[in-house]
């Protein structure tokens, strides 16, 4: 991601990619303190300060950063980063989703003749209809699958502060999609599980064509 120089923090609202020109730095969360002019950018999955001589000082791991804020505090510019929330689904949630799905009476009846099954659990996106996700040919069981690295987009901005937020899909915190494939049957079952109520909301049966 290419840095875009910005002569004053007041102009930061016009940013479309991450990059700031900084005349001075105050104390920065993460251990950076400098009065050297330069830029803040994201390079190789790291939030970095680059001074006018090209020297680079890492500020934070961008892969674990959810938000970057640059503020003008009484003439000193301060950069802070906010850590990301946990993954879309924890291991405990995945185990619970799989348990609820395979113990559902309707699904259990359909799986009686099977000599085994494979079970995968995927996060459900909150910004896309569930029915569309159920019918998608390929499902990513990891929220970060297919990602090429963290990217950030402009968030809130004032004359003294600009915030950049991580640009990524939003996922349901209490729902999961469980994919059950019987070993000896040409079917695949996709099950929407409510993790809070530990109930099955929807089951879709797909015929697998090899």
Task: Give an account of the 3D structure.
The protein is mostly beta strands and about 210 residues long. The chain has 2 domains: about 10-85, no CATH class; about 90-125 and about 170-205, Nuclear Transport Factor 2, Chain: A, CATH 3.10.450.40. Helix content is about 10%, strand content about 45%. It is built from 3 helices and 14 strands. It has helices at about 90-100, 105-110, 130-135, and strands spanning about 20, 25-30, 30-35, 40-45, 45-50, 55-60, 65-75, 75-85, 115-125, 150-155, 160-165, 170-180, 185-195, 200-205. Strands 1-4-5-6 form a 4-stranded antiparallel sheet, with no helix packed on it. Strands 8-7-11-10 form a 4-stranded antiparallel sheet, with no helix packed on it. The relative contact order is 0.17. Mean pLDDT is about 75; it is low at about 1-35.
Please supply descriptive tags for the structure shown above:
210 residues, mainly beta, Nuclear Transport Factor 2, Chain: A, 2 domains, four-stranded antiparallel sheet, 3 helices, 44% strand, disordered N terminus
SSE arrangement:
Elements: E1 20-22, E2 27-28, E3 32-33, E4 38-43, E5 46-51, E6 56-61, E7 65-73, E8 76-83, H1 91-102, H2 105-110, E9 117-125, H3 130-134, E10 152-157, E11 161-166, E12 171-182, E13 187-194, E14 199-207
Antiparallel strand pairs: 1-4, 2-3, 4-5, 5-6, 7-8, 7-11, 9-12, 10-11, 12-13, 13-14
Quick overview:
By secondary structure, the protein is mainly β. It contains three helices and 14 strands.
Low-confidence stretches: 1-35
Question: How many separate domains make up the residues?
Answer: 2
Structural class: mainly beta
Indicate the overall shape. Answer: elongated
Helix content: 10-25%
State mean pLDDT (0 to 100 scale).
74
Beta-strand portion reads 35-45%
Termini separation (Å)? 41 Å
CA-atom Rg in angstroms: 23 Å
């Amino acid at each position: 991601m290419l840095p875009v120089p910005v002569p004053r923090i007041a102009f930061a609202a016009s940013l479309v990619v991450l990059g700031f020109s900084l005349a001075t730095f105050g104390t920065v969360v993460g251990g950076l303190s400098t009065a050297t002019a330069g830029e803040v950018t994201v390079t190789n999955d790291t939030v970095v300060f680059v001074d006018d001589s090209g020297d680079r000082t890492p500020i934070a791991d961008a892969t674990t950063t959810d938000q970057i804020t640059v503020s003008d505090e009484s003439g000193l510019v301060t950069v802070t980063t906010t850590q990301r929330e946990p993954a879309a689904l924890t291991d405990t949630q995945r185990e619970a989703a799989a348990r609820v799905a395979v113990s559902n009476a309707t699904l259990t009846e359909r799986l009686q003749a099977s000599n085994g099954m494979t079970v995968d659990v995927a996060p459900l996106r909150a910004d896309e209809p569930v029915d569309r996700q159920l019918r998608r040919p390929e499902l990513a069981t990891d929220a970060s699958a297919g990602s090429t690295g963290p990217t950030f987009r402009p968030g809130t901005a004032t004359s003294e502060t600009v915030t950049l937020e991580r640009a990524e899909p939003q996922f349901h915190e209490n729902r999961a999609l469980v994919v059950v494939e019987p070993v000896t049957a040409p079917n695949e079952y996709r099950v929407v599980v409510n993790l809070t109520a530990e109930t099955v909301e929807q089951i879709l049966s797909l015929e697998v064509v090899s």
